[in-house]
Amino acid sequence: MFAYIVRRLALMLVTLVGISVVVFFLLRVVPGNIVDILFDAAGFVDPADKANLERELGIDQPLALQYLHWIWGLLHGDLGYSYVSEKPALQEILPRIPITARLAGLALLFSASIGIPLGVISAVNQGSRLDYILRVVSLSGLSLPSFWLGLLILMASVSLFGNIPIFNPDPKTFGELFTTYCLPAMAVAFRSSALTMRITRSSMLEVLRQDYIRTARAKGASEASVNFNHALKNAILPVITVVGIEAAFLIGGLIVTETVFNIPGVARFLVEAIRWRDYPIVQNLVMFIAVVVVFANFTVDMLYAVFDPRIRYTD
Amino acid sequence: MRIVQALAAAVLSVLAASTVALAAEPKQGGIFRIYHRDSPGSASIHEAATYSINVPFMPVFNNLVIYKQDVAQNSLDSIVPDLAESWAWSGDKKTLTFKLRQGVKWHDGKPFTSADVKCTFDMLMGKSPQKFRQNPRKSWYDQVEDVTTNGDFEASFNLKRPQPSLLALLASGYTPVYPCHVSPAEMRTHPIGTGPFKFVEFKANESIKLTRNPDYFKKGLPHLDGIEFTIIPNRSTALLAFVAGKFDMTFPTEVSIPLLKDVKAQAPNAVCVVEPTNVSTNIIVNSSSAPFDNLDVRRAMALALDRKAFISIMFEGQADIGGTMLPAPGGLWSMPKEMLEAIPGYGPDIEANREAARKLMAKAGYGPDKHVQVKVSTRNIPVYRDPAVILIDQLKTIYVDAELDVVDTAQWFPKVARKDYVLGLNLTGNAVDDPDQSFYENYSCGSERNYTNYCNKDIEKLFDEQSVETDVNKRKKLVWEIDKKLQEDVARPIIFHIHAGTCWQPYVKGVTIMVNGSYNGYRYEDVWLDK
How far is it, in rounded angstroms, from Cα A227 to Cα A123? Predict the structure, then answer.
């Protein structure tokens, strides 16, 4: 097991190096850089001024050298300076991470805590009215884009309560905390909880037809015990996989939700940075997201072993 | 009884008068909350080419002179002293001298002197060792030979030739005086000014905060304790937040006409105004690219335009038709209506115009059997994209099959600057309602912003002629001639001049939205909150 973990960690490192190369060069392939944007938008370009700025930002150097410079800095905790704000990239990125982490964590929590129980209820009551209602709700969850749902929440809040739940940097009451984080997280979680519910349902249906479930019932186990101790435990693996993938895809959903709820998190900041071609911010943020995704996958793999004792990672 | 009644009436009228007087008396205090449409790239107005920077940072600074902030129309008559106490032109109109205020302090406590004025304009002219990272309005000072000082409180602009409009340029929100002792880099992140509000913080993508300058040299001002801008790029969220009362004012001239209706429906007490922005929507034609290298084809295109259709679709009728200069009543320099309507394509009979256009197309070899295939390039944002779609539809009437080519904002200006387009739909904003700013920038032979490569030496001479003219009426006539000629030459066909809305809560007092410049009215020293 230990050797397996070491090997996985080594593989993760190779993956991250690969991602760094792809991110760095793709960013340079996209036409235009910050100097183009600043100067061409302003007009009256003095080519010497433009060259000076390119030299000042270091984007006149060969790409390989720029890449090595970035990686060397990264290894030494120096993420460079934002081209736009002229502040250290770390100083710009760090305060935004907890905001997005809270949102993403809450969204995952909502997704799992709503999706899994409803999936079980739906499977256990297959073909009933309740099952149909839950399936329709889950279908709507999959069909509604989170930005639209977010806007609906905002509009409903304004028209019903005369208030708007946009980001509050300093929430003091539980109500403020709820509106700052829980409502946006719910908007994101609605779609992923629908997906979790459907996967849980189909996985549960498959397990509920197994002989060992019939045996458990024959032995006199209660329905609750059959459903949660015997069935859900065996049906949970595909759900864990989906939740893991959702965690990786969450950042995509958050870009839109952070924009609609005006949350100054990592996702919205990344889009702004791409717009400005702020290389130090973009490449470091993408690397941060890559690290999160790679570790999420690793955690999911490890959780398999926890939930299914038959799985053993060996050399 | 009558005497009692008369006395009661007198007492009541005195009371009423005193109440009115009290109501009109500005109240001190309060934070003015505005949403900002995007995160400005920096805090340095001199390095900016967008009013996204002027709006939050103009309150930090003072100019030498400024357009009076409670007069909606910017003109030479509405210019008042700011850091200057007075100004005077020399007899030959080649020297403009400012007497400066004494006792003014920068926000860091250092004294303001004429050296700061010289420093600022030397940097703008590219004459100082310290450089701006970018200097978009360097050409505004092409006619300034140098800036000299006489003691600590007098500065003179020495010109190569008379240029009466220099004063108008100096009064723009784009022309604050910077402190000598603060580097341009620092001014981009932590601006120091002499203005009514001090900079507190700028969190990119989050907020900008300003606080009252207690040492402001204009006694009793500002009325507000501070201004807070919350950056909300999503327009729907921003307007909902305004409707919910989170903000005292929308971002200036950022509410479109259809959205204005929504705001008024949801917040009926809000005060909303719709004003011209001095931004024109126009067509840029690459006259070196076939078939638009043929003047007949360019003229046919200009004749095919149904400007009223654009305005009714996009602005529910609330926009202006005009030439290069902003139309009256907002604009000061526009041609008279009859002169405008005599220009091909501006006449009211659209069908007749298009028939004439089709004849020109036939002359150039195009007709029902041979269409022109072309791409209309534009920025991928609604204010550009929507008129481009209408343009494509209208061009069909003259056998032009156009395809929309939407370009990412980061790519748009580089693409246009390298003339990598055939037809483009562009927006042109004018910082000051003055022909010098508009003509030289957009139509002068060597100008970087002359995207269409239009170059006419005869017109260039007229540019100079109007620029030196000190008699306003004579200058106006010259400007009309130039504008007419630019439209006839299809230099950059102007489709319409945009109007946009601004809303504020009823308790906000002292806001004036300028009608001929979107860059000059954000000092906010007179604004107060009646609550």
Answer: 10
Q: Are B189 and A86 in contact (CB under 8 A)?
A: yes
B236-284 pLDDT, tens digit each: 999 999 999 999 999 999 999 989 999 999 999 999 999 999 999 999 9
pLDDT for A41? 64
- Assess B419–A contact: CB distance below 8 Å, yes or no: no
Q: How far off is chain A from B257, nearest CA to CA, in Å? A: 20
Q: What is the pLDDT of residues B500-523, one digit of tens each?
A: 999 999 999 999 999 999 999 999
Alpha-carbon span A104 to A188, nearest angstrom: 9
Q: Are A44 and B135 within 8 A, CB to CB?
A: yes
With an 8 Å Cβ cutoff, are A262 and B240 in contact?
Answer: no
Query: Is the CB of B41 less than 8 angstroms away from the CB of A276?
Result: yes
Q: Is the pLDDT of residue B20 over 60?
A: no
Q: Find chain B residues with C-beta within 8 A of A261's C-beta.
A: 237
- Taking CB atoms and an 8 Å limit, are A259 and B234 in contact across chains? yes
- Cβ-in-10-Å burial (0-12, 13-18, 19+) of B69 comes to buried
ipTM value > 0.90:
no
Interface test with chain B among A35, A44, A257, by most B beta carbons within 10 Å: A44
Instruction: Please give the pLDDT value at position B23.
Output: 52
Q: Is the peptide bond before B291 cis (omega within 30 degrees of 0)?
A: yes
Burial B500-513 (b: 16+ CB within 10 A, else e): bbbbbbeebbbbbb
What residues of A are in contact with residue B138 (Cβ under 8 Å)? Answer: 44, 46
Kind plus residue range of the DSSP H or E element containing B331: none
pLDDT band at A315 (very low <50, low <70, confident <90, very high): low
Q: What is the mean pLDDT of chain B?
A: 93
Pick from B279, B323, B285: which is nearest to B428 by CA?
B279
Q: What is the pLDDT of residue B382?
A: 85
d(CA B449, CA B179) in angstroms, rounded, equals 29
In this complex, the residue of A162, A169, A262 whose CB is nearest that of residue B237 is: A262
Q: How confident is the model over B226-245, as a mean pLDDT?
A: 95
Q: Using CB atoms and an 8 Å cut-off, which of residues 453-492 of chain B contact chain A?
A: none
Buried b (16+ CB within 10 A) or exposed e, B324-349: bbbbbebbbbbbeeeebeebbbbeee
- Tell me phi and psi for residue B27, to 5 degrees: -95, 145
Cβ atoms B331, B325 nearer than 8 A: yes
> How large is the greatest C-alpha to C-alpha distance in chain B, in angstroms?
94
**Which chain A positions have a beta carbon within 8 Å of B246's beta carbon?**
164, 166
Q: How far is A50 from chain B (nearest CA, A)?
A: 8
pTM of the model: 0.88
Instruction: Calculate mean pLDDT across residues A49-57.
Output: 85
pLDDT band, very low/low/confident/very high, at A311 (cuts 50, 70, 90): confident
Given an 8 Å threshold on Cβ–Cβ distance, is B266 in contact with A268? no
Nearest CA-CA distance, residue A310 and chain B, Å: 49
Q: Which residues of B touch A275 (CB under 8 A)?
A: 409-410
